[in-house]
Structure formats: C-alpha cells, structure tokens
C-alpha cells in the first residue's frame, strides 16, 4: 500500500531522514516511534505530500506520490495533526464543511456525511455547533478525526493525536480510536512517542533514531529481538503494562 524507497530529506544542510526504505501493508495500523527530532513528523509530512523528498521515491499502490496533485492527495489521505488543528473562529461543523469544498457537495450530502461520522466517533451532534475553543481536548480530537475522514480517504495519518490529553481521557480515546480503526479497516499511520500506545495500536511499528530507520516489525520483535542497544533502551524506558505485553503474545 505504502512504500518508501531510499527516501532522504534535507532541511538546509541537515539531513532529517536518511535513505529510509519500508513497506506498510494495506488495512493495518502502523505506528511510528522515535525520540524528538528523530524524523517521525518528517516521515508523516512526506507521506502526506506536504513536503517532497530530497532523494528517493514514495509510492501509494505503486503510484509515485510526486505524480499526484495536492487535491488528489487530499482525497486519498486524511491528516490529524497535533491537538486537532481546528480553526478557532469556526464552529466544529464549519470546520468539517471546509473539507468538502473541493468536492462541491450539496448541503444535504455534507450534513449526511457529518451525521454518519459523528455517530461513528460518538460525539453529540449538538457539540458540533460549538466553537473549537469551547470543546474539550477529547472532543476536539474527535472532530479532527471526522474532518480527516470526510472524503473517505484510503489512508489516515495521525501525528501524536492524544499527546495533549490527560491520562483518563487519553485511555478512553485510545479504545475508541482502535474501535474506529477496526470498523473502517483503513490504512492508518500513527506517530507517537508512547511505548504502550504503540503496542496497543500497531500491527507494525517503525522506530526512527537520528533520521534513520533502526527497526521495523511487530511489537514482539522489539521486545524479544531488538536490533541494537538503542532499541532495547527505547523500549525499556517506558515499560508497557503486563496487559499490553500479554495482548501481543
């Protein structure tokens, strides 16, 4: 579904991604791990088409991403940035309606799609009439997810979607997101620095360090067959709960 072939990315003289090659399977949730500055968000931005690689190629179902326009990419890829990224001067509903402007949907079509997705993410339709600043963190993330899903994209990208939430809200929303991912069966790429969160969501996990891909595989491989000392240190720094370890046996 998604293939990075020797992809490198430079910011000026700094190489933030170094010859990355990886395949991400269709219909699965893929977690991107790494420390700050490791290249996680750059990987996501390249995949979204917001940035172009300095060298190498990125393919979606064997089509080079450079051959797709921004409109085509927006129809294929939904993106949830940190803290939702909603426009504060618009209501939640108005934020969602913006996503359909390129499709020229009727008001009825747009309203029906919003109603379907509000039910899916379990948000009260009345909350959609409120401004973003009036919503809780969890509600904003649900609205941001609806916005990413509005055009029914093949791929959903999420950049630290739960990082700013308090632990109880985060735990509840993790369960909700996993239910949604399992229901939709879309290809999901989720960036997180949280080990337990990665273990909970990831069919596969990719770990970056200083711009390099250091290990790719399932959670068991990271625990039982770490590629090097950095992988061992990264995983042991946030020991997953016994429940998560049991789930991946």
Tally of helical runs:
10
- Please give the order of strands in the largest beta sheet: 6-7-8-3-9-10
Poorly predicted runs of 5 or more residues:
none
What is the CATH class of the domain at 2-87 and 154-227? Alpha Beta
What is the number of E strands? 10
Cα-based radius of gyration, to the nearest Å: 18 Å
Q: How can the largest sheet be summarized?
A: 6 strands, mixed
Order of helices and strands: EEEHEEHEHHHEHEHEEHHH
CATH architecture of the domain at 2-87 and 154-227: 3-Layer(aba) Sandwich
- Protein structure class: alpha/beta
Shape: globular
- Helical content band: 25-40%
Strand percentage lies at 15-25%
Mean pLDDT: 89
Could you tell me how far the N terminus lies from the C terminus, measured between alpha carbons in angstroms? 26 Å
Q: What's the CATH superfamily of the domain at 2-87 and 154-227, by name?
A: P-loop containing nucleotide triphosphate hydrolases
CATH topology of the domain at 2-87 and 154-227: Rossmann fold
Describe the structure concisely.
By secondary structure, this protein is α/β, with parallel strands linked by helices. It has helices at 40-48, 70-76, 92-98, 107-121, 137-149, 167-184, 195-201, 219-224, 229-237, 242-247, and strands at 2-11, 14-24, 29-34, 55-60, 63-64, 77-80, 155-159, 187-191, 204-209, 212-217.
